[in-house]
Structures are given as C-alpha cells and as structure tokens.
Amino acid sequence: MKQISADQNTIAYCGLYCGACKRFLAEKCPGCQKNEKAPWCKVRQCCMENNYLSCTDCKLVDDPSDCRKFNNFMSKFFGFIFRSNRRACIDLISEKGYPKYAEFMAEQKRMSLKR
Fold this sequence. Notes:
Helix content: 25-40%
Number of domains: 1
Number of helices: 5
Strand content: under 5%
C-alpha cells in the first residue's frame, strides 16, 4: 500500500486530492489524471481538452459554481454523501497554488475539504 505524500500530480481535475484516497493508496485506482476508465467525467474531459491542471485554471467560467460540468447532479450527490466541498478545494488551490495545496492535503490526510 502506498503512503500519503504531497504530490501535485495526484490533484484531480475537480480539486479532490487523489493522493489521500483509499483506492489510490491501495493501488486500485491510478488517480484522476491517469484514469483512462473515466471518460464519463465531464470535468476531466474539459480540463484535458483545455490543458488545465484543474478547474482552478479555467478561463471559460469565472465561478466554478456557474459551470454545468463542475456543478452537476453527480457532483452534488457525491458532495452530499461524502460531505465533500470541491469548490473549497478549487478555492484553496487558487489561494495556495498546487504544491502547497498538495502539501496541506497530505498533512491533513484528506481527499477533500469538508462541508
């Protein structure tokens, strides 16, 4: 099993931190950026098409809450079930930058900020 470490390459396009995810650490998932089995994810598709590291880099929409890809039914469902706040993750990436965000999430051992 992998150990949680600060690696900005394990930040998901939507702002979640795969580096602290149980499935990632158990090597059952390659993480968002390398997950070729996730073509269904509209956020991932959009970021890849636009060469964004995450929604933080988006030039198409000023506020992620206004983005239909970022703020869809599945993300709301996921956020409710896991008390996850992807918007706060995106805001924290904007504030701290990718390396510091990865460090913070690794130190906190969190995949997401809580609601």
